[in-house]
């Protein structure tokens, strides 16, 4: 991979997270970065070890997890903020990624925090 291509591919995460609800398509990324789909996909996988979609999904869910811990937002609001239009889809994706529902995660997180503060 050429240095220029690597620099362009490293811009993808920033481009993906400008608007959680409307990430750019692969075609839009190719057009924006001036490269073919093959170069884009293969280069991204080489640099990040995963596909663009999987990277995007994992980052969205990691952000949601942090928001469940740090914000007072409802789970529904966290879901919408992270680009999920359906709460049930968000919950199933969260559970698939972390092995626990968002509600149970939040309850466990705050129960752990209370326990640690009480010691």
UniProtKB/TrEMBL annotation:
SMART domains: HTH_ARAC
Entry keyword annotation includes DNA-binding: yes
Stretch forming the signal peptide: none
Ranges of residues in domain HTH araC/xylS-type: 10-108
Pfam short name (any one): HTH_18
InterPro entries in alphabetical order: Homeodomain-like_sf (IPR009057), HTH_AraC (IPR018060), HTH_AraC-typ_CS (IPR018062), PchR_regulatory_protein (IPR053142), Tscrpt_reg_AraC-type_HTH (IPR020449)
The entry's keywords: DNA-binding, Transcription, Transcription regulation
Claim: Transcription regulation is one of the keywords in the record: yes
PANTHER family (alphabetical): REGULATORY PROTEIN PCHR
Protein name (record): AraC family transcriptional regulator
Organism this protein belongs to: Aequitasia blattaphilus
Upper classification of the organism: Bacteria, Bacillati, Bacillota, Clostridia, Lachnospirales
